[in-house]
C-alpha cells in the first residue's frame, strides 16, 4: 500500500510531462493499478486495525474522508488553471499528498515495532499475575477484553 501511494503521487506529477497520447495511456495504467492496489488492500487493513465488528464503520469513515478531496479537487484545479494558465500546478499539487502519506505510512511499522518492544520490556513478569492482560483480539477477534471472562 505504501508503494502504491508513492507511485500514485509520482504518476500524478508526471501527467504534465506527457507529450503524446501514448504517455497518457501509460500513466493512466499505472494510476489505475495503484488505485486498485489501495482499494483492495483498504478492507483487510481496516479489518486488522479495528477488528471485524467495527471494520464496516471504519471503511465508511475512510470513504467519507476520501470524498472531501475528490469533490474539492476539481474546483481547486480549475482555480489553478485560471491563476497559472495551465493545469500543471494542479497535477503537481495532487501528487504531493500521496507521496507524503506513503512516506508517513512507511514509518508506522518502525514506530509500532518500537512500541511493542517497550511494552514487552515493561510487562515482563507482571503479565502472568495480571488477569486483565488479554488484549482485544487475542481471545476472539473483535471481542473486547472486558467481555472476555476467563
TrEMBL record:
Annotated GO molecular function terms are:
thyroid hormone transmembrane transporter activity
Name of this protein:
MOT8 protein
Where do transmembrane segments lie in this chain?
23-47, 59-77, 89-111
Organism in which the protein naturally occurs: Penelope pileata
The record, for InterPro entries, names: MFS (IPR011701), MFS_trans_sf (IPR036259), Proton-linked_MCT (IPR050327)
How is this protein situated with respect to the membrane?
Answer: Multi-pass membrane protein
Where is the major localization of this protein?
Answer: membrane
Q: GO CC terms on record?
A: membrane
Pfam families xrefs: MFS_1
Q: Any signal peptide, and if so, which residues?
A: 1-20
Superkingdom of origin: Eukaryota
Its gene is Slc16a2
UniProt keywords, alphabetically: Membrane, Signal, Transmembrane, Transmembrane helix
Keyword Aminoacyl-tRNA synthetase attached: no
Q: Where in the cell is it found?
A: Membrane
